[in-house]
Amino acid sequence: MSAGTVTVAPLRHEDAARCAEIERQVFPGDDPWSEHAFRAELDNGNYYVGAYVGGKLIGYAGLGLTDFESSVHTIAVAMGWQSSGIGKTLLRTLLAKADELQVPVFLEVRTDNARAISLYLAHGFEHLGLRRRYYQPSGADAYTMGRPANRD
């Protein structure tokens, strides 16, 4: 698909249905999040952004925040829009927020998701550990990765 002009903006409650739709596309074997789950993430004060083209949500990313660390909760890009740099843009948006707050960033990623692992390594993440059978119901393993706080 044509990338057009991608706008990254705060995710809205009305985007929850589209987020759930993208979840079902991208994570079909691992208990995709529901509309309710996305609304709860927003209600809990987590930092979520969406990527929009022509007003349509094509990707989203979320960062859980505490006073001393952050955690990437999710990044997803709709089928047809993958490999167009949108995931990278969303990740960089999350990292900019963590850098603004000067907190480290942690995440889990499927061990078989080579594209995502490569993206994370290119943005300063390191492997920290392995979580066996982390993703359910598939039972896929996950790497735990971390990136130190940017204290510039």
UniProtKB/TrEMBL annotation:
Residues 6-150 form the N-acetyltransferase domain. It catalyses: N-terminal L-alanyl-[ribosomal protein bS18] + acetyl-CoA = N-terminal N(alpha)-acetyl-L-alanyl-[ribosomal protein bS18] + CoA + H(+). Transmembrane segments: none annotated. GO terms for molecular function: protein-N-terminal-alanine acetyltransferase activity. It is an enzyme of class 2 (transferase). Gene3D superfamilies: 3.40.630.30. Keywords: Acyltransferase, Cytoplasm, Transferase. Its main location: cytoplasm. GO terms for cellular component: cytoplasm. Its EC number is 2.3.1.266. It comes from the Bacteria. InterPro entries: AcTrfase_RimI/Ard1, Acyl_CoA_acyltransferase, GNAT_dom, MshD_Acetyltransferase. It is found in: Cytoplasm. Acetylates the N-terminal alanine of ribosomal protein bS18. Belongs to the acetyltransferase family. RimI subfamily. This is [Ribosomal protein bS18]-alanine N-acetyltransferase. It comes from Saccharothrix tamanrassetensis.
